[in-house]
Specification:
single chain, mainly alpha, 3 helices, 68% helix, elongated
Protein backbone atom coordinates (compact mmCIF):
# COMPACT_ATOMS: atom_id res chain seq x y z
CA UNK A 1 0.00 0.00 0.00
CA UNK A 2 2.65 2.54 1.04
CA UNK A 3 5.65 1.64 -1.09
CA UNK A 4 8.74 3.67 -0.32
CA UNK A 5 9.23 6.46 -2.83
CA UNK A 6 12.08 8.36 -1.18
CA UNK A 7 15.77 7.63 -1.63
CA UNK A 8 18.08 7.43 1.40
CA UNK A 9 19.51 10.86 0.52
CA UNK A 10 16.01 12.32 0.25
CA UNK A 11 15.10 10.82 3.62
CA UNK A 12 18.27 12.15 5.24
CA UNK A 13 17.70 15.68 3.99
CA UNK A 14 14.08 15.58 5.15
CA UNK A 15 15.16 14.35 8.57
CA UNK A 16 17.75 17.09 9.05
CA UNK A 17 15.50 19.89 7.78
CA UNK A 18 12.51 18.57 9.72
CA UNK A 19 14.47 18.38 12.97
CA UNK A 20 15.87 21.87 12.42
CA UNK A 21 12.39 23.27 11.86
CA UNK A 22 10.97 21.62 14.97
CA UNK A 23 13.87 22.77 17.15
CA UNK A 24 13.75 26.29 15.71
CA UNK A 25 10.00 26.52 16.23
CA UNK A 26 10.24 25.44 19.84
CA UNK A 27 13.41 27.30 20.86
CA UNK A 28 13.31 30.40 18.71
CA UNK A 29 9.91 31.18 17.28
CA UNK A 30 7.77 29.79 20.04
CA UNK A 31 4.74 27.61 19.56
CA UNK A 32 2.42 30.51 20.29
CA UNK A 33 3.11 32.36 17.03
CA UNK A 34 1.59 31.40 13.69
CA UNK A 35 5.05 31.09 12.15
CA UNK A 36 6.23 28.86 15.00
CA UNK A 37 3.20 26.60 14.67
CA UNK A 38 3.62 26.38 10.88
CA UNK A 39 7.33 25.56 11.22
CA UNK A 40 6.60 22.86 13.78
CA UNK A 41 3.89 21.33 11.58
CA UNK A 42 6.05 21.28 8.45
CA UNK A 43 8.99 19.91 10.46
CA UNK A 44 6.84 17.14 11.92
CA UNK A 45 5.55 16.17 8.48
CA UNK A 46 9.11 16.04 7.14
CA UNK A 47 10.20 13.87 10.07
CA UNK A 48 7.32 11.42 9.53
CA UNK A 49 7.99 11.13 5.80
CA UNK A 50 11.71 10.65 6.49
CA UNK A 51 10.97 7.90 9.00
CA UNK A 52 8.52 6.06 6.74
CA UNK A 53 10.20 6.68 3.39
CA UNK A 54 6.82 7.51 1.89
CA UNK A 55 5.60 10.91 0.68
CA UNK A 56 1.97 11.29 -0.33
CA UNK A 57 2.72 14.30 -2.54
CA UNK A 58 5.35 12.26 -4.39
CA UNK A 59 2.71 9.57 -4.95
CA UNK A 60 0.14 12.09 -6.22
CA UNK A 61 2.60 13.63 -8.69
CA UNK A 62 4.24 10.34 -9.74
CA UNK A 63 7.67 11.15 -8.25
CA UNK A 64 9.89 8.29 -7.07
CA UNK A 65 13.49 8.98 -6.00
CA UNK A 66 14.25 5.34 -5.10
CA UNK A 67 16.63 3.82 -7.65
CA UNK A 68 15.30 0.26 -7.41
CA UNK A 69 12.50 -1.42 -5.48
Amino acid sequence: MFTRNESPLDRGVRGVVGAALVVTSIAGLGLTTPLGIAAAAVGAILLVTAATGFCLLYRLFGVDTVKSH
